[in-house]
Amino acid sequence: MTIQRICILGSTGSIGCSTLDVVARHPEQLSVYALTAHQNITLLAKQVQQFKPRVVVLPDAATLQSFLNHYHDSWTPEYRLGTEGLCSVAADSEVDTVMAAIVGAACLAPVLAAAQAGKRILLANKEALVAAGSLFLNAVKQSRATLIPIDSEHNAIYQCLPETIRAPIPEQAHPSILRLLLTASGGPFRTWPLDDFATITPQQACAHPNWSMGQKISVDSATMLNKGLEVIEAHWLFAMPADKIQVLIHPQSIVHSMVEYIDGSVMAQMGQPDMRTSIAFGLGFPERIQSGVPPLSFSALSQLEFEEPSLERFPCLALAFDALRTSQAACIALNASNEVAVAQFLNGQIAYLDIPRVIQASIDAMLKHDTTVIESIEHVVALDQQARHTANQISLSFTQRNHA
Length: 404
Ligand code: NAD
Ligand code: MG
Description:
Elements: E1 4-9, H1 14-24, E2 30-36, H2 41-51, E3 55-58, H3 61-70, E4 78-81, H4 82-90, E5 97-100, H5 108-116, E6 120-123, H6 127-143, E7 146-149, H7 152-160, H8 163-166, E8 177-184, H9 202-206, H10 215-223, H11 225-238, E9 245-249, E10 255-261, E11 266-270, H12 276-284, H13 315-326, H14 328-346, H15 354-366, H16 377-403
Parallel strand pairs: 1-2, 1-5, 2-3, 3-4, 5-6, 6-7, 8-9
Antiparallel strand pairs: 8-10, 10-11
Helix pairs in contact: 1-12, 2-3, 4-5, 5-6, 6-11, 6-14, 10-14, 11-13, 13-14, 13-15, 14-15, 14-16, 15-16
Bound molecules: nicotinamide-adenine-dinucleotide and magnesium ion (MG).
């Protein structure tokens, strides 16, 4: 049996750690070739000691120096730095599979490098697809890379589609599909009184009822912008128009998403809310491998509920649907301004209710420019930077207002 060599982009994050948990269960099949991290060097040092990767990527020389101060093992990996280091390792000829688990648009360049190099890509990151969907998918098609969605909803849909429809990447919505039903937990504020939203703290927003995740995606789940990003992600992965994607709140997070066919059949994928299931699906594909996730106990499930989300409660979801219907530039602005707004909210600079305001104003500003043709990744990056700049300025005006 040949060993699959894996590069984990973002190994110290929630998805990165879950990936290593699954990898450690299959030493005869899976080996870690590269690990990358941005901060948390203490955790990275432990991971390097345990998994002995050939390559480690850190953001800069200063972080490498502090990593070396924490790392005291005899195993000596090769060190690479910055975006260049991430791109080189994602395209390294020794790598078979790339787990894309860096949060945010920072994953775009390395995941594109992996696509151009024809790797098997396990895509957890959603922001790259939102910002550069067509460019990224074209690179995947041209180089015959394999793309397996890891985000639980898209992984569920992938599992509910026959191979003839899903592979490699559909050009247009398959006529047998009536719609995709994306489930969402509704996050921590699903039943909160709307009057209390003004005082929501970062700690409350990060306390997700079902999933344990990184801070940014936890806030995105609270606002449901996460589901909005996932609608855009589903649009690209399955060639589905916005009108054929419906979001359903399902507080138990057991049904991870569904495909409804024109004959009335609805296929659902179910399981525990634990990302190791979809990670193991990607690592083992096309075989099934153990993930460490305990089996679902149907007798312990008291009920499975579904309801339509209220756009008054979750305005970010409406913003994402609007952006998808408007243009790619609107999607870039949605994603970039959200990253800025969430970071400012987590720092205590803006209020929870300011998040959709920053996003809306940033999209409006973006649409004043002519952005009809976006053909290069450099253009995507330039628009992303422009949207971040606008979002920062808008956030600043909210900060000043909040502290006046
Ligand atoms: P996280 O914040 O826990 O981890 C992020 C990882 O990226 C860390 O290793 C960090 O060091 C690295 N990183 C952060 N900024 C970076 C930068 N500028 N350059 C290079 N590396 C950087 O995030 P997470 O929850 O693991 O999520 C990762 C991605 O997967 C996100 O795009 C998220 O939307 C997606 N996702 C996560 C989950 C989940 O359950 N956590 C589920 C579905 C999709
Ligand atoms: Mg998801």
